[in-house]
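Training component of the fellowship. As part of building independent skills, the fellow (R.M.) carried out the full modelling exercise for a liganded target. The chosen ligand was zinc ion. The inputs are recorded below so that the supervisory panel can assess the work.
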Amino acid sequence: MHFSQIKGHQETKGLLVNSVRQNHVAHAQLFLGQEGSANLALALAYATYINCEDRQPNDSCGTCNSCVKMNKLVHPDFNFVMPVTSTKSVTKDVLSQKFLTDWREFVLANPYQGLNEWMQHIGAENRQGNISKEESRQLVKLVSLKAFEGDYKIVLIWLPELMHPFAANALLKLLEEPPAKTLFLLVSQSAEKLLATITSRTQIVQVRAFTQEEVISYLQEKHGLDNTAAYQIAQLAEGSLNAATKLTSEISSDYFTFFTDWMRNCYTYKFDKVVDSSEEFQKLGRENQKNFLLYALNLFRKVMLYGVDESLIAFLPPNELDFVQKFSKVITENNAGKLAQELNEAHYHIERNANPKMVFVDSSIQIAGYLRNAN
Ligand SMILES: [Zn+2]
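Fellow's submitted model of the complex:
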């Protein structure tokens, strides 16, 4: 992984690059960010930069002996510890080492995935993964060895919050009496689940969620989505590229058109068309139905904000802006809350397996009433 392959985060990249160039690399660093953020990707790019034999001003070279190995995650001085569990193929000595091939595939396919995806990838079924006592014993042995090729041994621990308490204490000991020429990169989603004594011994690298623009550009490049689809997904993904990727396979229709037609039919009391739409809604399937209602709520929130102050709404594609402008005229203080609540309730009922067609028609009747009785 190179810094240039990660969207945005210029400031964090700059700090990381400078720490290497100025020889101020802290021996233990905590890359802290929500699931689907760039925390793992940045830690990988950082390790690659540290080991690079021909460092460029802002990034690793990508072609030296070290970069080639780092890019395949096969550099002998780059070690991984991650939560694992027994599976059909690994029934005893359940250690990270045994899952390295899986790990490489998993990370190289997409470094923004979460624990659930990892557990699925190794075939854990319903078992929980963790970082075991035995794993920490291996880690202590590992760091006592000298580096093979580079200056440093780097140990990347993914999701250290899933350490067995014994393992966490063993790691704490290592951080208190750091072995020579060893770097620990902890990649975590929740610092509050770590021992405070561990976090206090690390330098924290806060990794913010991706912005909407970054998610859009990722979806366009990586999944070849068009503007509209990428934009719709970005609104639901909450800055997570993992969520965005999953939504890409779930979202099959154009929510915007469906929503605007729906509102128009409600407003004009065209209930025959509403019934037709309810058939379409039914066909979306439950996950898509929920996603659609969340999308609707999100767009609706924009309409309300627009009504308060136009400048509160940034970054709307032209067709959506046009709709928001028109629709905001029929939304008032009086009906806004009721409409939002109706959409929320529809989502609630779909989640609890109510009949989608009935939910849709029911909501439509309520919404029609609220739209026509704005005052
Ligand atoms: Zn290089």
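The panel noted the following from the submitted structure. Residues 52-54, 60-61, 64, 66-67 surround zinc ion (CB under 6 Å). The chain has three domains: 3-208, 210-251, 253-372.
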